[in-house]
Amino acid sequence: MHPTDISNPDYFHKVVDCQWACPAHTPVPEYIRLIADRRFGDAWAINWESNVFPGILGRTCDRPCEPACRRGRVEKEPVAICRLKRVAADNKGDISRYLPAIPTQKNGKRIALVGAGPASLTVARDLMPLGYHCVMFDGDSKGGGMMRSQIPRFRLPETVTDEEVDIIVDMGVETRFGPGGYVDSLKSLLAEGWDAVFVGSGAPRGREIEIPGRQEAGAHIHIGIDWLSSVSFGHVDKIGRRVIVLGGGNTAMDCCRSSRRLGGEEVTVVVRSGFEEMKASAWEKEDAQHEGIPILNFLVPVEFTHDSGKLTGVLFEKVKAEYDEKGRRNLVPTGEPHTHVPCDDVLVAIGQENSFPWIERDIGIEFDRWGMPKVDPKTMQASLPHVFFGGDSAFGPKNIIWAVAHGHDAAISIDKFCHGEDVAERPAPGVTLVSQKMGIHEWSYDNDISNDLRYKVPLRDLKVALKDIRTEVELGYDDKLAFLEAERCLNCDIQTVFAGPLCIECDACVDICPMDCITFTDNGAEAELRTRLSAPATDFEQDLYIGDSLKTGRIMVKDEDVCLHCGLCAERCPTGAWDMSKFLINITQAGTACRSR
Amino acid sequence: MTYIVKPRLHHPKLPTNALGYTHRDYEGSVSTLCAGCGHDSISAAIIQACFELSLPPHRIAKLSGIGCSSKTPTYFLGQSHGFNSVHGRMPSVLTGANLANRDLIYLGVSGDGDSASIGLGQFAHCIRRGVDMVYIVENNGVYGLTKGQFSATADKGSSAKRGAVNSDSPIDLVAMALQLGASYVARSFSGDKAQLVPLIKAAIQHKGAAFIDVVSPCVAFNNHPGSTKSFDYVRDHNEAVNQLDYMVERDAIVADYAPGTVETVMQHDGSMLRLRKLALDYDPHERISALTYLQQRQAAGEVVTGLLFVEADHGDMHGYLDTVDSPLNTLGEAELCPGPDLLERYNAAHR
Ligand SMILES: Cc1cc2nc3c(=O)[nH]c(=O)nc-3n(C[C@H](O)[C@H](O)[C@H](O)COP(=O)(O)OP(=O)(O)OC[C@H]3O[C@@H](n4cnc5c(N)ncnc54)[C@H](O)[C@@H]3O)c2cc1C
Ligand SMILES: Cc1ncc(C[n+]2csc(CCOP(=O)(O)OP(=O)(O)O)c2C)c(N)n1
Ligand code: SF4
Ligand code: SF4
Ligand code: SF4
Ligand SMILES: [Mg+2]
Questions:
Q1: Which residues pair with A205 in a beta bridge?
Q2: For residue range A21-57, what is the model confidence (pLDDT) as tens digits?
Q3: Contact between B30 and B2 (Cβ < 8 Å)
Q4: What is the model's pLDDT at position B253?
Q5: Which domain holds residue A84?
């Protein structure tokens, strides 16, 4: 193998598993250390910079970082990265000093943003400090998109949404909210001569279910996302006593938990697949079950039963999973008699679709055969060069953090586009690597490894929580729990940096390493090399760090997989051939740093 | 000095031995030696050897004297018995312990100062008595703990860190062990665990006095040009006569060795040693020719390493003295006080 090129920013970035997995590349360990240090404002600011909605995401993020977290590979569970973010937001104090100045002298460029969800808000957040004039359109009367209209208040209090949306709107974004803000023709909008248009209109349509009885019993069968927004906006405040929720995704979980708070006493979730394959996150399923909601699986709805126009229940066919030779799963009927589950209301949460009735097909924006616009995944540019897409409208329904990441990328493109530059040329990230050595055995970070298991976030008493749909269920970590949970972080951004010419091959680092990461051996091809290291290195996703220039001609191999970043290798090295250096990567955002001129 | 405790977390796919332990279970507390000390690598090799042999930690006794080397038993086998004796007196304490309880595995850990200077007499008698033990000298050529004075194993003409040249002749503990009748003699290097670990395993399985001289650089006081115990010097002058692949059970001799280059040695307990010859004319069963070979190569400036001598059916102190078969602490009143008749007969025999 060739020696590792640590000057490539991706190498050490990948070692910070959480940051690498985060679509917005939030510097996770950096903010967790600040929380442990009780510097909540600073921790909030780091988050705000990367992911724009620390308070919202600290409660609702899909957290792709957590399955990636190294802690989950060395013990049972990852660090509670997401809920620590909430701690920063809850305790941040006055944040005005962190906010960028907005130029009073504008740069003369006018940008239209369609939709006021997280994607558009991110574009505005990135462009306003650069002097752009941003105009945001939304048919709803307040900004926030689905964060406001869909995510139930018991998970995300409206005050939190208000605060984080307002920070952006207060930068001077011109808003056209309310019925008049709905854009019913992109053609007419384009005719107004904007320098660029960003489409962040989301994936607003809930998938229908076409089985017998749908029409007849329609009064008590509701499309999940429509029902949830009616609940959010106060148009619906009760539901029948017995409720069936069809579907196994996160929307289904929000539907069933909302039902429990609006009069639903017997709420049941029914899914076609097995429990394990449900789309909902593990923690959402857990939360639903905690609220006394059973989840029935392997049942396919075949008919809504009704009596003189009134829904009486749902008939289900029992299925089982069978796998064909290619390993694909098919659900096949078991042949057992159908089961009937009686109910008063049904919520259909079986998926979400994009729909662009307001975009004319003859204005130069190409769509694919699934009705999705053709969008460049790096630049977010549509086939019409001054139109950009982001969030759920770009590639179908995802989540808030992806919408934010798209927003950042689109903002860079819009800024370059408005300056006549090639949007395909993307800026390199800003990287710093700084030694953390303070003394022979002292480091500027806490290198002692906590043995604690993941702390549960305290919940409000169930009886109280179910009384009012606006009562937040999670109480959040208090100071003490936040500190203890923060201490579980392994500081993966404090990198082990190897300098071969200094090494005397004394083996001290090999002997001390608690995780058997380090081996001195003869070089070889990667697959073969992996078989003869101090401990099995079977995860090819995790890099081997190769160092050369050793006197014996051997190489140093470090398997990055389960390194605790405890720094013991560097403490035991007599020559300083190992150092612990903080790697800070800042993904460059829109602004002069990304422009070539 | 490291202030944090070594994290309890370990590699999730760490192999376990027959007792279900990982090598981490054979560790001691974190070393307080200088970072990079060769002695720490020897501790790691002992840990690895005991792990691979699936030894129950509570059946091992580790004994040492004074010195950085003699401090190391704290850093391995944290669940085993330990005794840190007076400077140079480890051999006597070990002999006594072995006489009292012959069932334990004895690991004597010492330094070149501890064994070749103040403890030379103790070393000699312990070896010549054939005490069943593994006697390891962590040989750095200096008194590390007292800041780097030449020890008795420092080569004549080698220089100290500040430039002083050693004018005294060195003591070669390997040559002495051979002369004094040790039945297993080896030399190795702390920087070569592939060689050292099998040598320790075979020494543990060996019945009788097993002696291993491990050259172990003192990074603080004896790792400079002019030293003959530095990492660079030993790597440049290391001449291994053979490579020991320790095997517990007899298995087929691997075919890809040239004929005559592999030798299998059976130990008293039936375990097998497979020895790959590197110096074809070297015979590890011949005490006298081994001594000659060693002295010739040494004179040529080489550091000869490997399994230098082994005598499989040698016997040990308990055999020579015909002692009672069981540890003294298991003897009951009947065995210890056999009654007035026996005492009378015994006394009569001496009149
Ligand atoms: C029930 C439910 C729960 C969810 N829970 C989570 C969660 O916990 N965590 C998470 O990360 N994600 C969650 N999501 C997904 C998340 O809400 C979306 O992925 C995210 O909001 C998408 O952001 P966006 O900016 O693309 O658009 P959206 O948030 O969908 O906002 C689009 C906005 O555009 C407006 N709009 C649409 N068309 C027009 C038009 N023609 N003119 C003017 N305005 C228009 C809409 O009114 C809307 O306000 C959930 C989704 C649902 C349905
Ligand atoms: C009776 C006695 N004399 C002298 C000393 C001082 N002393 C402590 S360690 C040591 C030398 C140790 O040398 P060595 O055995 O080679 O150990 P190293 O530190 O080199 O590993 C000496 C002379 C002592 N502790 N006790
Ligand atoms: S920081 Fe060094 S000693 Fe600690 S686990 Fe990583 S490689 Fe091993
Ligand atoms: S501790 Fe330092 S000098 Fe020793 S082998 Fe490791 S990197 Fe090399
Ligand atoms: S002084 Fe020498 S022998 Fe003692 S711990 Fe330091 S390096 Fe090792
Ligand atoms: Mg010494």
A1: A353
A2: 999 999 999 999 999 999 999 999 999 999 999 999 9
A3: yes
A4: 43
A5: 10-97+454-462+472-486
